[in-house]
Design brief:
mainly beta; 477 residues; eight-stranded antiparallel barrel; five-stranded antiparallel β-sheet; elongated; Neuraminidase; 33 strands
Protein backbone atom coordinates (compact mmCIF):
# COMPACT_ATOMS: atom_id res chain seq x y z
CA UNK A 1 0.00 0.00 0.00
CA UNK A 2 1.43 3.33 -1.03
CA UNK A 3 0.83 6.18 1.27
CA UNK A 4 0.81 9.76 0.03
CA UNK A 5 2.01 12.29 2.42
CA UNK A 6 0.69 15.80 2.06
CA UNK A 7 2.56 18.36 3.92
CA UNK A 8 0.56 20.19 6.57
CA UNK A 9 1.06 23.58 5.07
CA UNK A 10 -0.27 22.40 1.69
CA UNK A 11 -3.35 21.02 3.36
CA UNK A 12 -4.08 24.33 5.02
CA UNK A 13 -3.76 26.07 1.68
CA UNK A 14 -6.28 23.77 0.01
CA UNK A 15 -8.83 24.37 2.72
CA UNK A 16 -8.53 28.07 2.29
CA UNK A 17 -9.25 27.82 -1.48
CA UNK A 18 -12.59 25.92 -1.08
CA UNK A 19 -15.31 28.43 0.03
CA UNK A 20 -17.62 27.57 2.90
CA UNK A 21 -21.27 26.67 2.09
CA UNK A 22 -22.68 29.92 3.46
CA UNK A 23 -20.38 31.99 1.36
CA UNK A 24 -21.46 30.05 -1.77
CA UNK A 25 -25.12 30.65 -0.97
CA UNK A 26 -24.64 34.38 -0.76
CA UNK A 27 -22.77 34.63 -4.04
CA UNK A 28 -25.05 32.19 -6.03
CA UNK A 29 -28.64 32.72 -4.80
CA UNK A 30 -31.18 30.05 -5.94
CA UNK A 31 -34.19 31.07 -8.16
CA UNK A 32 -36.93 32.63 -6.10
CA UNK A 33 -40.74 32.14 -6.60
CA UNK A 34 -42.59 35.40 -7.55
CA UNK A 35 -44.22 37.04 -4.62
CA UNK A 36 -47.99 36.86 -4.58
CA UNK A 37 -49.75 40.15 -5.50
CA UNK A 38 -50.80 42.33 -2.68
CA UNK A 39 -54.34 41.65 -1.58
CA UNK A 40 -56.86 44.44 -2.17
CA UNK A 41 -59.70 44.92 0.28
CA UNK A 42 -62.67 42.73 -0.65
CA UNK A 43 -65.57 44.62 -2.19
CA UNK A 44 -68.69 44.84 -0.05
CA UNK A 45 -71.26 42.29 -1.26
CA UNK A 46 -74.79 43.68 -1.80
CA UNK A 47 -77.62 42.26 0.25
CA UNK A 48 -79.13 39.12 -1.32
CA UNK A 49 -82.29 39.87 -3.41
CA UNK A 50 -85.32 37.63 -3.94
CA UNK A 51 -85.50 37.37 -7.72
CA UNK A 52 -88.91 35.99 -8.78
CA UNK A 53 -88.90 32.83 -10.82
CA UNK A 54 -89.89 33.35 -14.44
CA UNK A 55 -93.63 32.93 -15.05
CA UNK A 56 -94.74 31.08 -18.14
CA UNK A 57 -96.84 33.13 -20.52
CA UNK A 58 -98.29 30.05 -22.14
CA UNK A 59 -101.95 29.29 -21.48
CA UNK A 60 -104.51 26.84 -22.86
CA UNK A 61 -106.26 27.79 -26.09
CA UNK A 62 -108.76 26.15 -28.44
CA UNK A 63 -110.98 25.07 -25.56
CA UNK A 64 -114.73 24.48 -25.67
CA UNK A 65 -116.42 25.00 -22.28
CA UNK A 66 -120.02 24.36 -21.33
CA UNK A 67 -122.41 24.19 -18.40
CA UNK A 68 -125.84 22.72 -17.75
CA UNK A 69 -127.56 24.89 -15.13
CA UNK A 70 -128.33 27.03 -17.07
CA UNK A 71 -127.27 25.59 -20.42
CA UNK A 72 -124.36 27.57 -21.91
CA UNK A 73 -121.15 27.15 -23.90
CA UNK A 74 -118.04 29.22 -24.53
CA UNK A 75 -115.41 29.21 -27.26
CA UNK A 76 -111.90 30.03 -26.04
CA UNK A 77 -109.86 30.61 -29.19
CA UNK A 78 -106.27 31.43 -30.03
CA UNK A 79 -106.46 34.91 -28.47
CA UNK A 80 -108.89 34.20 -25.65
CA UNK A 81 -112.68 34.10 -25.19
CA UNK A 82 -114.48 34.56 -28.53
CA UNK A 83 -118.15 33.75 -28.04
CA UNK A 84 -120.63 32.93 -25.28
CA UNK A 85 -123.79 31.01 -26.09
CA UNK A 86 -126.83 30.47 -23.86
CA UNK A 87 -129.89 28.36 -24.52
CA UNK A 88 -132.64 30.40 -26.26
CA UNK A 89 -130.58 33.61 -26.39
CA UNK A 90 -128.58 35.05 -29.30
CA UNK A 91 -124.83 34.38 -29.05
CA UNK A 92 -122.61 36.99 -27.43
CA UNK A 93 -119.46 38.02 -29.31
CA UNK A 94 -116.51 38.65 -26.97
CA UNK A 95 -113.46 40.86 -27.44
CA UNK A 96 -110.46 39.00 -25.90
CA UNK A 97 -108.26 40.90 -23.47
CA UNK A 98 -105.29 40.13 -21.26
CA UNK A 99 -104.68 36.64 -19.89
CA UNK A 100 -102.99 36.15 -16.52
CA UNK A 101 -101.57 33.02 -14.90
CA UNK A 102 -103.10 32.80 -11.42
CA UNK A 103 -101.10 29.63 -10.75
CA UNK A 104 -98.62 28.84 -13.56
CA UNK A 105 -99.53 25.63 -15.29
CA UNK A 106 -102.68 25.19 -13.20
CA UNK A 107 -105.05 28.18 -13.31
CA UNK A 108 -105.54 31.14 -15.65
CA UNK A 109 -107.89 34.12 -15.93
CA UNK A 110 -108.91 35.29 -19.39
CA UNK A 111 -110.29 38.83 -19.51
CA UNK A 112 -112.67 40.00 -22.23
CA UNK A 113 -115.51 42.40 -22.99
CA UNK A 114 -119.02 41.89 -24.28
CA UNK A 115 -118.69 43.36 -27.80
CA UNK A 116 -122.30 44.60 -27.81
CA UNK A 117 -122.60 46.14 -24.35
CA UNK A 118 -119.01 46.65 -23.17
CA UNK A 119 -119.66 44.63 -20.02
CA UNK A 120 -116.57 43.01 -18.48
CA UNK A 121 -116.14 39.26 -18.74
CA UNK A 122 -113.65 37.05 -16.87
CA UNK A 123 -113.14 33.38 -17.64
CA UNK A 124 -111.26 31.34 -15.04
CA UNK A 125 -109.78 28.07 -16.28
CA UNK A 126 -108.41 25.56 -13.75
CA UNK A 127 -106.63 22.39 -14.79
CA UNK A 128 -108.48 19.75 -12.81
CA UNK A 129 -110.83 16.90 -13.52
CA UNK A 130 -114.40 18.08 -14.03
CA UNK A 131 -117.78 16.42 -14.64
CA UNK A 132 -120.91 18.04 -16.06
CA UNK A 133 -123.27 15.63 -14.26
CA UNK A 134 -124.85 14.80 -17.61
CA UNK A 135 -122.45 12.11 -18.82
CA UNK A 136 -119.53 9.96 -17.71
CA UNK A 137 -117.06 12.17 -19.57
CA UNK A 138 -114.23 13.59 -17.48
CA UNK A 139 -113.15 17.00 -18.71
CA UNK A 140 -109.68 18.52 -18.39
CA UNK A 141 -110.65 21.92 -17.05
CA UNK A 142 -113.02 23.44 -14.55
CA UNK A 143 -114.41 26.71 -15.96
CA UNK A 144 -116.12 29.70 -14.40
CA UNK A 145 -117.46 32.58 -16.51
CA UNK A 146 -118.25 35.88 -14.81
CA UNK A 147 -120.26 38.32 -16.93
CA UNK A 148 -120.93 41.71 -15.34
CA UNK A 149 -124.57 41.69 -16.48
CA UNK A 150 -125.50 38.02 -16.74
CA UNK A 151 -123.73 36.76 -13.61
CA UNK A 152 -121.65 33.63 -12.97
CA UNK A 153 -121.77 30.49 -15.11
CA UNK A 154 -119.98 27.32 -13.98
CA UNK A 155 -119.02 24.28 -16.00
CA UNK A 156 -116.28 22.18 -17.60
CA UNK A 157 -113.95 22.49 -20.57
CA UNK A 158 -111.93 20.39 -22.97
CA UNK A 159 -109.32 21.13 -25.60
CA UNK A 160 -110.98 20.77 -29.03
CA UNK A 161 -108.74 22.08 -31.86
CA UNK A 162 -110.86 20.33 -34.48
CA UNK A 163 -113.72 22.72 -33.69
CA UNK A 164 -111.61 25.78 -34.52
CA UNK A 165 -111.10 25.87 -38.31
CA UNK A 166 -109.29 29.18 -38.00
CA UNK A 167 -106.54 27.33 -36.09
CA UNK A 168 -105.77 25.21 -39.14
CA UNK A 169 -105.72 28.22 -41.39
CA UNK A 170 -103.51 30.33 -39.15
CA UNK A 171 -101.05 27.45 -38.84
CA UNK A 172 -101.20 26.88 -42.62
CA UNK A 173 -102.10 23.25 -42.11
CA UNK A 174 -104.38 23.31 -45.13
CA UNK A 175 -102.01 25.16 -47.46
CA UNK A 176 -99.81 23.41 -50.06
CA UNK A 177 -96.06 23.73 -49.58
CA UNK A 178 -95.64 25.81 -52.73
CA UNK A 179 -98.16 28.48 -51.70
CA UNK A 180 -96.81 31.93 -52.44
CA UNK A 181 -95.59 33.71 -49.30
CA UNK A 182 -97.22 36.97 -50.39
CA UNK A 183 -100.58 35.21 -50.66
CA UNK A 184 -100.16 33.96 -47.11
CA UNK A 185 -99.46 37.49 -45.90
CA UNK A 186 -102.55 38.80 -47.67
CA UNK A 187 -104.66 36.15 -45.96
CA UNK A 188 -103.28 37.24 -42.61
CA UNK A 189 -104.23 40.86 -43.37
CA UNK A 190 -107.74 39.78 -44.28
CA UNK A 191 -108.03 37.91 -41.00
CA UNK A 192 -107.17 41.09 -39.11
CA UNK A 193 -109.92 42.96 -40.92
CA UNK A 194 -112.65 40.43 -40.22
CA UNK A 195 -115.74 41.70 -38.50
CA UNK A 196 -116.28 40.73 -34.89
CA UNK A 197 -119.22 38.64 -35.98
CA UNK A 198 -116.90 36.33 -37.92
CA UNK A 199 -116.84 34.06 -34.87
CA UNK A 200 -120.57 33.45 -35.28
CA UNK A 201 -121.73 30.27 -36.95
CA UNK A 202 -124.12 30.78 -39.88
CA UNK A 203 -127.76 30.24 -38.93
CA UNK A 204 -129.06 27.52 -41.25
CA UNK A 205 -131.73 25.69 -39.29
CA UNK A 206 -134.47 28.32 -39.38
CA UNK A 207 -138.05 27.98 -40.57
CA UNK A 208 -139.18 30.38 -43.31
CA UNK A 209 -142.75 31.60 -42.71
CA UNK A 210 -145.50 29.88 -44.67
CA UNK A 211 -148.31 32.21 -43.54
CA UNK A 212 -147.94 35.98 -43.17
CA UNK A 213 -150.11 39.11 -43.15
CA UNK A 214 -149.07 42.63 -44.05
CA UNK A 215 -150.15 45.95 -45.53
CA UNK A 216 -149.39 46.65 -49.16
CA UNK A 217 -148.49 50.00 -50.72
CA UNK A 218 -152.18 50.93 -50.93
CA UNK A 219 -152.73 50.11 -47.25
CA UNK A 220 -154.75 47.02 -48.10
CA UNK A 221 -154.63 44.18 -45.56
CA UNK A 222 -153.12 41.14 -47.27
CA UNK A 223 -152.85 37.52 -46.15
CA UNK A 224 -150.54 34.97 -47.74
CA UNK A 225 -150.51 31.20 -47.11
CA UNK A 226 -148.04 29.28 -49.19
CA UNK A 227 -148.55 30.34 -52.79
CA UNK A 228 -152.07 31.72 -52.14
CA UNK A 229 -152.48 35.43 -51.41
CA UNK A 230 -155.74 37.17 -50.60
CA UNK A 231 -156.94 40.67 -49.79
CA UNK A 232 -158.58 40.64 -46.37
CA UNK A 233 -159.64 44.31 -46.40
CA UNK A 234 -159.17 47.43 -48.50
CA UNK A 235 -158.04 49.35 -45.44
CA UNK A 236 -156.88 48.39 -41.97
CA UNK A 237 -153.99 48.30 -39.48
CA UNK A 238 -152.47 46.24 -36.64
CA UNK A 239 -152.75 42.78 -38.29
CA UNK A 240 -152.53 39.68 -36.08
CA UNK A 241 -152.45 36.27 -37.75
CA UNK A 242 -153.40 33.06 -35.93
CA UNK A 243 -150.68 30.47 -35.43
CA UNK A 244 -152.24 28.16 -38.02
CA UNK A 245 -152.48 31.02 -40.50
CA UNK A 246 -156.20 30.53 -41.09
CA UNK A 247 -157.65 33.56 -39.31
CA UNK A 248 -156.66 37.18 -39.19
CA UNK A 249 -157.54 39.94 -36.72
CA UNK A 250 -156.99 43.57 -37.66
CA UNK A 251 -158.08 47.03 -36.54
CA UNK A 252 -160.57 48.84 -38.75
CA UNK A 253 -161.65 52.47 -38.73
CA UNK A 254 -164.32 53.98 -41.03
CA UNK A 255 -162.00 56.88 -41.80
CA UNK A 256 -158.57 58.17 -40.91
CA UNK A 257 -160.11 60.88 -38.73
CA UNK A 258 -162.84 58.84 -37.01
CA UNK A 259 -162.06 58.00 -33.36
CA UNK A 260 -164.17 54.86 -33.42
CA UNK A 261 -162.22 51.69 -34.06
CA UNK A 262 -163.23 48.08 -34.09
CA UNK A 263 -161.55 44.69 -34.48
CA UNK A 264 -162.51 42.52 -37.42
CA UNK A 265 -161.94 38.78 -37.80
CA UNK A 266 -161.13 37.49 -41.28
CA UNK A 267 -161.39 33.80 -42.27
CA UNK A 268 -158.87 32.86 -44.94
CA UNK A 269 -160.74 29.81 -46.22
CA UNK A 270 -164.12 31.54 -46.67
CA UNK A 271 -162.79 35.02 -47.43
CA UNK A 272 -165.35 36.58 -45.09
CA UNK A 273 -164.96 39.09 -42.26
CA UNK A 274 -167.06 39.85 -39.19
CA UNK A 275 -166.76 42.17 -36.24
CA UNK A 276 -165.07 40.61 -33.26
CA UNK A 277 -164.98 43.61 -30.88
CA UNK A 278 -166.56 47.05 -31.38
CA UNK A 279 -167.10 50.22 -29.41
CA UNK A 280 -163.55 51.51 -29.79
CA UNK A 281 -161.27 48.45 -29.58
CA UNK A 282 -157.82 47.88 -31.05
CA UNK A 283 -154.53 45.89 -30.89
CA UNK A 284 -155.77 42.30 -30.85
CA UNK A 285 -153.47 39.31 -30.20
CA UNK A 286 -153.98 35.56 -30.36
CA UNK A 287 -153.06 33.43 -27.33
CA UNK A 288 -150.34 30.79 -27.92
CA UNK A 289 -152.96 28.08 -28.62
CA UNK A 290 -155.29 30.44 -30.58
CA UNK A 291 -158.11 29.76 -28.10
CA UNK A 292 -158.29 33.30 -26.66
CA UNK A 293 -157.86 36.82 -27.91
CA UNK A 294 -156.61 39.80 -25.89
CA UNK A 295 -157.21 43.38 -27.00
CA UNK A 296 -157.52 46.95 -25.76
CA UNK A 297 -160.94 48.49 -25.14
CA UNK A 298 -161.77 52.08 -24.23
CA UNK A 299 -164.27 52.51 -21.41
CA UNK A 300 -164.73 56.24 -21.93
CA UNK A 301 -161.79 57.21 -19.71
CA UNK A 302 -159.13 54.53 -19.94
CA UNK A 303 -157.75 51.87 -22.26
CA UNK A 304 -157.93 48.49 -20.52
CA UNK A 305 -157.00 44.92 -21.43
CA UNK A 306 -159.91 42.64 -22.30
CA UNK A 307 -159.91 38.93 -23.09
CA UNK A 308 -162.43 36.84 -25.01
CA UNK A 309 -162.73 33.28 -26.23
CA UNK A 310 -162.02 33.05 -29.94
CA UNK A 311 -165.30 31.21 -30.39
CA UNK A 312 -167.41 33.44 -28.09
CA UNK A 313 -166.40 37.10 -28.46
CA UNK A 314 -169.69 38.22 -26.87
CA UNK A 315 -168.47 36.82 -23.54
CA UNK A 316 -165.43 39.08 -23.35
CA UNK A 317 -164.38 40.36 -19.94
CA UNK A 318 -161.88 42.86 -18.60
CA UNK A 319 -158.57 41.27 -17.61
CA UNK A 320 -157.22 44.31 -15.78
CA UNK A 321 -158.49 47.76 -14.87
CA UNK A 322 -154.93 49.13 -15.21
CA UNK A 323 -154.93 52.11 -17.59
CA UNK A 324 -152.50 51.35 -20.41
CA UNK A 325 -151.51 52.92 -23.73
CA UNK A 326 -150.46 49.82 -25.66
CA UNK A 327 -150.88 46.05 -25.69
CA UNK A 328 -147.89 44.03 -26.93
CA UNK A 329 -149.05 40.42 -26.98
CA UNK A 330 -149.09 37.23 -24.94
CA UNK A 331 -146.19 36.18 -22.73
CA UNK A 332 -147.66 32.72 -22.12
CA UNK A 333 -151.09 31.10 -21.94
CA UNK A 334 -152.19 33.23 -18.96
CA UNK A 335 -150.17 36.47 -19.18
CA UNK A 336 -150.08 39.45 -21.53
CA UNK A 337 -147.65 42.36 -21.80
CA UNK A 338 -148.93 45.96 -21.84
CA UNK A 339 -147.45 49.40 -21.16
CA UNK A 340 -148.10 53.06 -20.54
CA UNK A 341 -145.53 55.83 -20.81
CA UNK A 342 -143.83 54.90 -17.54
CA UNK A 343 -143.97 51.13 -17.07
CA UNK A 344 -144.34 47.76 -18.73
CA UNK A 345 -146.94 45.48 -17.12
CA UNK A 346 -147.09 41.71 -17.04
CA UNK A 347 -150.84 41.21 -16.52
CA UNK A 348 -152.01 37.71 -15.67
CA UNK A 349 -155.27 36.01 -14.77
CA UNK A 350 -153.58 33.66 -12.29
CA UNK A 351 -150.99 35.77 -10.42
CA UNK A 352 -150.30 39.37 -9.32
CA UNK A 353 -149.30 41.92 -11.92
CA UNK A 354 -145.57 42.56 -12.36
CA UNK A 355 -144.18 45.98 -13.26
CA UNK A 356 -140.87 47.04 -14.83
CA UNK A 357 -140.00 50.73 -15.38
CA UNK A 358 -139.62 51.53 -19.07
CA UNK A 359 -136.52 53.58 -18.29
CA UNK A 360 -134.83 50.30 -17.30
CA UNK A 361 -135.74 48.79 -20.64
CA UNK A 362 -134.96 51.83 -22.82
CA UNK A 363 -131.93 53.22 -21.00
CA UNK A 364 -130.77 56.69 -22.03
CA UNK A 365 -130.29 55.98 -25.73
CA UNK A 366 -134.01 55.73 -26.56
CA UNK A 367 -137.09 57.82 -25.93
CA UNK A 368 -140.43 56.41 -24.83
CA UNK A 369 -143.49 56.83 -27.08
CA UNK A 370 -146.93 55.26 -27.13
CA UNK A 371 -146.31 53.99 -30.67
CA UNK A 372 -143.40 51.80 -29.55
CA UNK A 373 -143.76 48.03 -29.68
CA UNK A 374 -142.48 45.37 -27.28
CA UNK A 375 -142.58 41.79 -28.51
CA UNK A 376 -141.87 38.75 -26.35
CA UNK A 377 -139.61 36.15 -27.97
CA UNK A 378 -141.70 33.02 -28.69
CA UNK A 379 -138.99 30.68 -27.36
CA UNK A 380 -137.83 32.78 -24.40
CA UNK A 381 -140.15 35.02 -22.38
CA UNK A 382 -137.16 36.80 -20.81
CA UNK A 383 -136.16 38.28 -24.17
CA UNK A 384 -137.96 41.35 -25.52
CA UNK A 385 -137.78 42.84 -29.01
CA UNK A 386 -138.33 46.60 -28.66
CA UNK A 387 -138.98 49.08 -31.48
CA UNK A 388 -138.30 52.68 -30.40
CA UNK A 389 -136.89 56.05 -31.44
CA UNK A 390 -133.35 57.08 -30.60
CA UNK A 391 -133.08 60.00 -28.21
CA UNK A 392 -130.51 61.37 -30.67
CA UNK A 393 -130.33 60.01 -34.18
CA UNK A 394 -126.95 58.35 -34.95
CA UNK A 395 -124.69 60.27 -37.29
CA UNK A 396 -125.51 59.46 -40.88
CA UNK A 397 -128.72 57.54 -40.08
CA UNK A 398 -131.84 58.40 -42.13
CA UNK A 399 -134.39 60.52 -40.29
CA UNK A 400 -138.06 61.45 -40.66
CA UNK A 401 -139.70 64.87 -40.76
CA UNK A 402 -139.07 65.27 -37.02
CA UNK A 403 -135.37 64.53 -37.52
CA UNK A 404 -135.78 61.24 -35.64
CA UNK A 405 -134.49 57.77 -36.38
CA UNK A 406 -136.29 54.59 -35.33
CA UNK A 407 -134.72 51.16 -34.79
CA UNK A 408 -135.10 48.04 -32.66
CA UNK A 409 -133.12 46.34 -29.91
CA UNK A 410 -133.16 43.23 -27.73
CA UNK A 411 -133.60 43.47 -23.96
CA UNK A 412 -133.12 40.74 -21.38
CA UNK A 413 -135.46 41.41 -18.48
CA UNK A 414 -133.46 39.55 -15.80
CA UNK A 415 -129.95 40.70 -16.68
CA UNK A 416 -130.98 44.12 -18.10
CA UNK A 417 -128.67 43.46 -21.06
CA UNK A 418 -129.58 45.65 -24.05
CA UNK A 419 -128.22 45.12 -27.57
CA UNK A 420 -129.10 47.26 -30.59
CA UNK A 421 -130.05 45.02 -33.49
CA UNK A 422 -131.46 47.37 -36.14
CA UNK A 423 -129.09 48.12 -39.05
CA UNK A 424 -127.29 51.44 -38.43
CA UNK A 425 -128.01 52.67 -41.94
CA UNK A 426 -131.76 52.07 -41.76
CA UNK A 427 -134.95 53.62 -40.47
CA UNK A 428 -136.57 50.49 -39.02
CA UNK A 429 -140.09 50.05 -37.60
CA UNK A 430 -142.55 47.41 -36.49
CA UNK A 431 -140.06 44.66 -35.67
CA UNK A 432 -141.76 41.26 -35.26
CA UNK A 433 -140.56 37.76 -34.36
CA UNK A 434 -140.86 34.70 -36.54
CA UNK A 435 -142.42 31.70 -34.82
CA UNK A 436 -139.05 29.95 -34.46
CA UNK A 437 -137.60 32.98 -32.64
CA UNK A 438 -134.51 33.10 -34.87
CA UNK A 439 -135.71 35.68 -37.39
CA UNK A 440 -136.96 39.23 -37.11
CA UNK A 441 -139.03 40.97 -39.78
CA UNK A 442 -139.15 44.76 -39.86
CA UNK A 443 -140.34 47.63 -42.03
CA UNK A 444 -137.40 49.41 -43.62
CA UNK A 445 -137.59 52.96 -44.98
CA UNK A 446 -138.52 56.47 -43.88
CA UNK A 447 -142.28 57.19 -44.00
CA UNK A 448 -142.99 59.76 -46.68
CA UNK A 449 -139.50 59.48 -48.17
CA UNK A 450 -139.60 56.76 -50.77
CA UNK A 451 -140.82 53.19 -50.97
CA UNK A 452 -141.09 51.06 -47.84
CA UNK A 453 -140.45 47.33 -47.66
CA UNK A 454 -139.97 44.42 -45.24
CA UNK A 455 -136.53 43.04 -44.47
CA UNK A 456 -135.51 40.01 -42.48
CA UNK A 457 -132.56 39.73 -40.12
CA UNK A 458 -131.45 36.95 -37.77
CA UNK A 459 -131.51 37.52 -34.03
CA UNK A 460 -127.70 37.66 -33.89
CA UNK A 461 -127.65 40.63 -36.28
CA UNK A 462 -126.55 38.64 -39.34
CA UNK A 463 -128.25 37.67 -42.58
CA UNK A 464 -130.19 40.83 -43.36
CA UNK A 465 -132.05 40.55 -46.68
CA UNK A 466 -135.04 41.99 -48.48
CA UNK A 467 -138.15 39.92 -47.83
CA UNK A 468 -141.19 41.57 -49.43
CA UNK A 469 -142.68 44.83 -50.66
CA UNK A 470 -145.28 44.86 -47.88
CA UNK A 471 -144.98 46.58 -44.50
CA UNK A 472 -146.06 45.91 -40.91
CA UNK A 473 -145.58 42.20 -41.58
CA UNK A 474 -146.63 39.61 -38.95
CA UNK A 475 -146.04 35.86 -39.04
CA UNK A 476 -148.67 33.18 -38.53
CA UNK A 477 -146.55 30.07 -39.02
Amino acid sequence: MVRVRIPFLQLIACLLIIPPPTAFAQTQPPPQKPAPPAKTPAAKQPAQQNIPAPVSKHYPILVIAHGTEPVWSLRLGMKGPERLDRLNYPPIVLDPGETTADQPGVAWTYNAKDAATGATVAVKLTRESCSDNMSDTKYTFRVEVQHAQIGTLSGCGQSAPDKFPEFRKKNQLDMPDDTDANAKDKDKDKDKDKDKKSVLDPITKFEPPVAVAYLDASNRVMVSRGAVRKTAALVGSEPALSHDGKKLLFTYSPSKTAPERSILLYDFDTGRSREFAGNTARQAFWSPDDSRIAYLKFDGKFWQVWVASASAPEKASVLSTQNVDALHGWVNATTVLASDLQNAYWISDDKPMETVPLKDIYGTAFQIMSSDTLRVCPINSDLLLVTAYYANAPTGAPTDAMDLNETFFLYEVRSKRRTILGPPDAFARNAEWSRDGLQIFFTRGVPGKGALSTDRIFWDGTGEKHYSAGINLVVGR
